[in-house]
Amino acid sequence: MNTIQVKGGKKYQKDIAEETVWWCLGYFDIDDVNIRVKIEPYKDCWGTCSEGNKEQSYDITVVNNQSLRDFIATVVHEMVHVKQYVKNRWKGDGEEEAERLQYKLTDKLWKEDII
Fold it and tell me: How many folded domains does the chain comprise?
């Protein structure tokens, strides 16, 4: 069973981040993970993804002051990294795949009226 926890940001950002994570979990066929998303001001980059301290647990940060499309694309980008961790399929640092898919899947979410 998947669990998602979103902290920080405004209510609409939390809702969008949660919907995007759920959609990505289904799209990438990922089960039994715990995803924690933290929405925060810009620090060093637009988003991060790392393994959490429990098995199948992943921590994502997303910067709050982005355009809506960029915010969603950042969540998608980090979810590509979750997929890479879960399925243990990486090419290099995984950035090429994440960058290639982030806007493609964001637009797919938009067209499917998920967001």
Answer: 1
State the amino acid at position 109 in one-letter form: L
Sheet containing 34-40: order of strands? 3-8, 34-40, 57-63, 47-51
Q: 5 forms bridges with which residues in the sheet?
A: 36
pTM of the model as a whole: 0.95
DSSP-assigned states of every residue in 59-96: EEEEESSS-HHHHHHHHHHHHHHHHHHHHT--STTSHH
Residue 38 has phi, psi (to 5 degrees) of: -120, 125
Helix 95-111 to helix 11-27 angle, to the nearest 10 degrees?
A: 110
Each residue of 33-77: pLDDT tens digit?
A: 999 999 999 888 999 999 998 889 999 999 999 999 999 999 999
In which domain, by residue range, is 30 found?
Answer: 3-108
